Amino acid sequence: MKTLKPFSSALAAALLLAGSAQAQNQKPRAPEPHEIRAPDRHEERQDAAERRDDRKDVAELERVLERFDNARARRHNAAELATVDNRLRELLRAELAEGREEKSQARAETRREWGESRAENRDDVRDARVEAASQTARKTIARELNSLMGARSQAQLSRKRELIVELVRLGKQELRQDRQEQREDRKDRKDRRY
């Protein structure tokens, strides 16, 4: 009987070592949906809300452009052009305020997440720069559009249309950048879970 005890101890140790080695070779498993952290879910909901808001903004700018074109086609309908000018002012005011907030959030994210991987840091800095450039472009357009409010000459109306088209283009560009940034954020969140 005495010889069995060392043998069973050696067998138990070998089994433990084999199980430990096998566990080390396994790939990490993807977390279950209920294991996703609450801050990640909050960030995903916030991203989705921002995307909806940006799509809504672009659609509204496209409607303003259509109304502008219709007013011009009807022999420069002064009342409709004035309505378009007023709506454009409201949209620009809201866009600039939203841009300031997004620029501030991008800077805060850069500061908050500094020290993560170099790639994530570069992405955050790049996102902050893109947001700042977008905000600068909107301010420039807003200033020029403001100088054209109420203008009715053919050249002024043509320039106003070009600026509205540029705002639509900026909005669509921001949507594309948002999708790219959100893909990067999802990847970062997934990487942090492991």
TrEMBL record:
Biased composition, class Basic and acidic residues, residue ranges: 29-56, 95-130, 175-188
The organism's place on the tree of life at top rank: Bacteria
Signal peptide: 1-23
Alphabetized UniProt keyword annotations: Signal
Disordered: region residues: 21-56, 95-131, 175-194
Name this polypeptide is given: Trichohyalin
The species this protein was found in: Archangium gephyra
